[in-house]
Amino acid sequence: MESAALADLGRTALELSYPEEADEFDAAWDRHHGGGRHRPRPPVGIGVDLLPLADHLVTALTFLSGAAATRVTERATDALTDRTKSRLAALISRADIAPPRPAPLDAAQEREVFDLLVGRLRDVLSPEEAERIAEGVIGALRLRSGGER
User: Fold this and answer.
1) Among 8, 38, 62, 114, which residue is least crowded by beta carbons within 10 Å?
2) Domain that holds residue 32
3) Spatial CA neighbour of 138 closest among 67, 77, 81, 64
4) Is residue 16 within a helix (H) or strand (E), and if so which, with residue range?
5) Sign of the alpha-carbon torsion through 19, 26, 145, 80
6) Which is nearest to 148 in space by CA: 119, 113, 122, 110?
7) Rounded CA gap, 26 and 5, in Å?
8) How many independent structural domains does the chain possess?
9) CB 29 within 8 Å of CB 7
10) Tens digit of pLDDT for each residue in 94-142?
11) Which residues, in sequence order, are CB contacts of 116 under 8 Å at separation 6+?
12) Cα–Cα distance between 95 and 73 in angstroms, integer?
C-alpha cells in the first residue's frame, strides 16, 4: 500500500471520528513509520489506555492495509473476503491523480472492514472508542471512493 495514501486515510478517519485529536495523527504516524517502531509505547509510568487514539489508529490502519494486501494472519484472512481485499486495497492505494475512482465498498464489505478494525482495537480501547474509530475509517474510505451514504 502507498504510505502517503494510508496516512491520508488515517488523518481523515481521525478527523471524522475524533476531530479534537486530529492534530495528533502526524506525530503518531512518524512514531510508527519514521522511527522504525511499529508498536505504540507509552511514556514510562503511563498505561497503554492513555496513549493518544492516533497511535491506536495507526497500528489498526497498518494491520488493515496488510490484510487488504496479503494474508497477514488467519484472523485477517478469515475476516475479509477476497473481493473486499481487492476493493479495499484499491481504495487505500489510489493515487490522487488517477482519473477513475475505485468502486466503493458495498454494505457487506464495509461491515467486514468495520468488524476487523473493532476486533483489532477492542483489546486496547473501549468498545465505544473502537467503534467510533472504525466508523471514521469507513467514512474516510467512502470519501476516497466518492461514495456518500
Assistant:
1) 38
2) 3-145
3) 64
4) helix 3-17
5) negative
6) 110
7) 13
8) 1
9) yes
10) 555 455 666 788 999 999 999 999 999 998 899 999 999 999 999 999 9
11) 63, 64, 67, 76, 79, 80
12) 27
Task: In whole angstroms, give the CA distance from residue 101 to residue 104.
Answer: 8
User: Coil, helix or strand for 38?
Assistant: coil
Distances (CA, A) of 55 to 62, 67, 69, 111, 132: 11, 19, 21, 23, 15
* DSSP code string of 52-97: -HHHHHHHHHHHHHHHHHS---HHHHHHS-HHHHHHHHHHHH--TT
- C-alpha cell at position 30: 512518524
Q: What are the cell numbers at 10?
A: 488515517
Residue 23: count other Cβ atoms within 10 Å of its Cβ.
Answer: 13
User: What is the Cα–Cα distance from 69 to 43, expressed in whole angstroms?
Assistant: 32
Place of cell 468495520: 114
Specify the DSSP class assigned to residue 101: P
Q: Which tens digits make up the pLDDT trace of 39-97?
A: 445 454 444 444 578 888 888 888 888 777 664 444 555 667 777 877 887 777 755 54
Query: For residue 23, what is its C-alpha cell?
Result: 492534530
